[in-house]
Amino acid sequence: SNAQYHVLLGNAYQRRNDIQAAETAYLTAIEVDPTYLDAYLQIGNLLSARGDNASANAYLIQALEVFIENPDQPLRPVSQLGLEILSAPAPNSVSAMGSVEETTTLDTNLLDPTNQFDVSVFIEALQGGETPSTVQALVQLYGRIGQVDEAIAIIQEEIKKANESNQSPTTISRYYSGLGDLLFAQQRYDEALESYNFAVALDASATQPRLGLARTYNAQGGAIVALEQLEIAVDVAPNSIDAQLALAEALQEQGQHERALEIYNAMAEAHPGDLRALLSLAAELNALNQPEEAEKVYRQIIELTPGSAEGYMGLAELFFSQGDYEEYERLLEQAVEKDNNASDAHLRLGLVRARFGSYEEAIGFYQQALAVAPTSMRAYTAMAEA
CB-based burial of residue 168 (10 Å sphere; 0-12 exposed, 13-18 middle, 19+ buried)? Predict the structure, then answer.
């Protein structure tokens, strides 16, 4: 979105220590889209670092209000690893086995303990009127600024209240599942397992705590037990794309590629328009040395999502693996033409240009990659080496 562009631009300015330009960019993001939560968080963080806590808190209160009205906005920095109180996790943000995709909107300054909001204003704002939405907002925002212990305390208190007021087992299960996510993020694995097991005991049909159990067992070195939990997750929720993807990925890690391919094929058939299912199927076909079949799926993705770069990027990788660098470059150019926010395509085009000695063009592509993903270390490294 245009608001996201201005926030990313503000992040880039902040890294260049151009604080005034960063503040202007964040304010522009709010003007463009008053519901874009990250803009409020970023400018609040900036003002807090500058010592203007009163203004920072004012923006944080606005952030809370925006979140309550728009609770589906995901806030998923790498440090959270899957915070999902009362809401499903963002697609592809964290696999059940614990791998994390690069998050382009993450500002690592937010994780600096010396650079945090005074979140006490939320306690006053919420007194006497807690709702699932406000609790979700509080927990996510605490996690967003690195105060995970406070977020854990809030959920534990909500679990206590939920038990005292005889709320439904499904609701309490979700609280325990979210608590497990927070404990996992703190590497408190035994406590995370306990929370996930409570969640499963309360709601045996819940998918997310099963995925949490798998992720935690895998982090402790128990890949086989993790796989068993994923099998159960698919059994209890056969239509869950999250569970099927996690199981297929785990099977790949165990070298069971044929069975993983069966799952990907079944997913693509059951969910013909789902981008994640198709991308996973194409990647697995390529890994199994079936490039012609993989190409068909990538072209199907392009047809289904003509404005997306994903299909072009996957197809480009396919031609690169076959040594067709000319077609690789052409498809990357199509990817950025379709989606100028495709930072990885900009980066790869820069690497292609650098390979043929066009360093000025390469730097231009690296700069575009960083404008979209200012935390991308690969782009920084490539530009430093250009």
Answer: exposed
Closest to 85 in 3D by CA, of 172, 177, 184, 187 = 177
Report how far residue 140's alpha carbon sits from residue 144's, in angstroms, rounded to the nearest whole number. 6
**How many Cα neighbours within 13 Å face the side chain of 194?**
5
Q: Name the H helices within the chain.
A: 2-15, 19-32, 37-49, 53-69, 120-126, 132-144, 148-164, 169-185, 189-202, 208-219, 223-236, 241-253, 257-270, 275-287, 291-304, 310-321, 325-338, 343-355, 359-372, 377-385
Cβ neighbours of residue 224 under 8 Å, at least 6 residues apart? none
| DSSP H helices in 290-358 | 291-304, 310-321, 325-338, 343-355
* pLDDT tens-digit map of 193-239: 999 999 999 999 889 899 999 999 999 999 999 999 999 999 988 88
Planar angle of CA 71, 74, 80, nearest 5 degrees: 120
Q: What φ, ψ does residue 100 adopt, rounded to 5°? A: -120, 130
| 312: CB partners within 8 A, 6+ apart | 302, 331, 332, 334, 335, 338, 345
* Measured CA distances, 79 to 43, 64, 170, 184, 247 (Å): 20, 20, 27, 10, 23
- Whole-angstrom distance, CA of residue 214 vs CA of residue 226: 4
pLDDT band at residue 93 under the 50/70/90 scheme:
very low
User: How far is the CA of 14 from the CAs of 36, 268, 307, 365, in angstroms?
Assistant: 19, 42, 31, 20
- Cα–Cα distance between 356 and 255 in angstroms, integer? 37
pTM of the model: 0.60
4-32 mean pLDDT: 84
What number of other Cβ atoms are within 10 A of residue 242's Cβ? 21
Between CA 156 and CA 154 the distance in angstroms is 5
Which tens digit of pLDDT belongs to each residue from 22-75? 888 899 989 888 888 888 888 887 876 666 766 776 787 777 777 666 655 554
Measured CA to CA in angstroms, residue 51 lies from 24, 60, 109, 119 at distances of 18, 15, 15, 15
